[in-house]
Automatic annotation (TrEMBL):
This is Glycosyltransferase family 2 protein. InterPro entries: Glyco_trans_2-like, Nucleotide-diphossugar_trans. Residues 4-154 form the Glycosyltransferase 2-like domain. PANTHER family: GLYCOSYLTRANSFERASE (PTHR22916).
Length: 313
């Protein structure tokens, strides 16, 4: 296997070396692609030092040297990569020694387009643990049982009950399948949840298989400055960011003729529920009354999301 590991880097001077070295431990990792995204800290200097030290590390910035976000940075990394397989890693996370154990066997089957696994959690400080333990705990981020490829798509749409989820850090995809089956990669206009939207479309177009899902193959690093903690501490309004996510999914689903009416209706309802969640109080109850008589299932999640705190990871 020749694996390209794509790492977008923003404000991660204290973590990126660990991420890179966790990828370089594998002989299968052909190259590590760092895309530095105009960090406000010294991440660019650290990345330059890493690239000078390790021959398998390539460093890039956007042509205009400006900040574009995680999605466009991953897109640039994919464009620059040359391996047969592509894996992703956030700069404050890291791989475990079993990261590609399942992939070595599963990718022998040419029908396998991608493999996903389980993600653990590490708190970089006691302050981060105190603030966010209720969100992440010590549990795995994983899909709870092995599903066939079509049901991975339905599971991510929340149509299979307790499905679970998987992280971009645990995904490995066949480069050829990505190029042939995906019309677009990460959506550049989504600054939040761009990985969730990408993984959902990916599971629709590609045949994704479970790898190791009962133990961690990578670790999410939780600290005071990463994006998911900012969302849950309400620096970023979670209802608004989720509304934008489901609006994007809704727009995409309307362009796909093969998506069933049942799936389209479910996506509409998810979008409506977050529209209700983010609406001001005077408008919120008007929307609830409207959907109570026209499509009451649209308000079930919306009612729950009024006091927003859950289902953000």
């Amino acid at each position: 296997m020749k694996i390209s590991v794509v790492i977008p880097v923003y404000n991660a001077e204290n973590y990126v070396l660990q991420a890179v070295e966790s990828a370089l431990q594998f002989d299968e990792v052909y190259e590590v692609i760092l895309v530095e995204d105009q960090s406000p800290d010294n991440a660019l200097l650290v990345c330059q030092q890493i690239a000078e030290k390790y021959g398998r590390v390539q460093l890039y910035q956007h042509p205009d040297k400006k900040n574009h976000g995680a999605g466009p940075s991953r897109n640039l990394g994919i464009e620059k990569s040359t391996g047969d397989f592509i894996a992703f890693l956030d700069a404050d996370d890291y791989f475990l020694p079993n990261r590609f154990d399942a992939e070595k066997e599963l990718f022998k089957n040419p029908k396998v387009d991608g493999v996903y696994g389980a993600l653990g959690v590490h708190y970089y400080s006691e302050k981060a643990k105190k603030q966010y333990y209720s969100l992440f705990g010590d549990r795995l981020t994983t899909v709870y049982k092995k599903y066939d490829t079509y049901n991975v798509f339905l599971g991510q749409l929340h149509m299979l009950g307790s499905f679970g989820l998987f992280s971009i850090d645990t995904l490995t995809v066949r480069r050829e399948a990505l190029a042939k089956k995906m019309n677009s990669l990460f959506q550049p206009h989504l600054r939040m949840h761009e990985d969730t939207e990408f993984l959902l479309r990916l599971s629709y177009y590609l045949n994704l298989y479970p790898g190791i899902i009962d133990q961690a193959v990578a670790i999410r690093g939780v600290h005071e400055n990463n994006r998911i903690t900012k969302i849950n501490s309400r620096v970023i309004n979670p209802a608004i960011s989720r509304t934008l996510l489901w609006k994007e999914i809704k727009t995409w689903s309307e362009s796909e003729n093969d998506i069933s009416e049942e799936v389209r209706l479910h996506i509409d309802r998810m979008y409506r529920s977050f529209e209700i969640a983010k609406a001001p109080v005077f408008k919120k109850w008007g929307m609830i009354i409207k959907y109570l008589f026209t499509d009451y299932k649209s308000i079930r999640s919306g009612l729950y999301n009024i006091n927003f705190r859950h289902s953000l990871v």
